Model the fold of this input.
Amino acid sequence: MLAQLNLGDGQNLGTADGRIALDCSVRKTRQGHYVISTTDFFFPLVDSPYLQGRIGAANVLSDLYAEGVESCDFVLMLLAACRDMPEDQRTICTKEMVRGFRDACTDADTCITGGQTVLNPWPIIGGVATSVVAEGEFVPSDGAQVGNVVVLTKPLGTQIAVNVHQWRRHHQNQNNNNNNNKFWKKCTDENIVTDDQAEEMMHQAVCSMARLNKNAGSIMVKHKACAATDVTGFGILGHAQNLVENQKEKVGIELHTLPLIAGTKQVNDKVLNFQLTTGYSAETSGGLMICMPKETAQAYMEELKDLDGTDSWIIGTVIADEKQQARILEDVKYLEV
Done:
């Protein structure tokens, strides 16, 4: 959206027109280094304020890691305390959000050096992440080549998992929201999702959202990645389209495989259409979507599995396309993971 506002001065690196960057602002300094920076924030999607803080930090840092940097030099924290909470609850909630954010930054080997705090109707946490690198220490996001494969480092379906959790919790609490009760009733009456499956779905989503993309980003240069972005609010196809439009070459992306958190496709198909299978279901703190040579992709995924203990997948191919379109193939394969 910012790109449509005619912002920027044409000097951002890693973008087709040098204006507003895809994930981060990448600027060459007068001294010859590169400053890579990004900002983001996170609304409450989970029950735990501590986990909200961790996910908020992971979400902020993810854009930085999509540039293939090994480390973040510092973070400024943006914090909104909820003015509508009783003071004692606000104090506990705010402290826990900050603790989760700080712990995630510590895990990322970075530190919080400042920020800003306000009162707000919603408790929100986020920040600004910055890395200073030399040439060759990051991956510009505009270098995808025909024949590259597309690797995804986290499964899709976090939006659905969170919503199912909310339906279930509201039903258990006898909340009067008829829609939530209707959706959860359909899940159980038609044996689409059980209580245990809903719990496991949410557990997998939280683990995914809270996991840093640090290792995924730090080995991109080593494995000759050509371009990348992270998958968040626009969904997998939305971000694939943004990525191809950002390329120097006239390329497109064909997606042939979609890895999904187990159970989310059933909910999407039988309860409420979140556009998961059409590629537009929003993700929170999603994985990196990386274009890289076919020859290096398997080694990349194996090393990432050793570092994170989690799978990644080849989900598509970069093709020549004058119209620069991303699409999901008709015979797409869905992997429940």
User: Anything to note?
Assistant: The two ends are 32 Å apart (CA to CA). Residues 87-107 form the longest helix (21 residues).
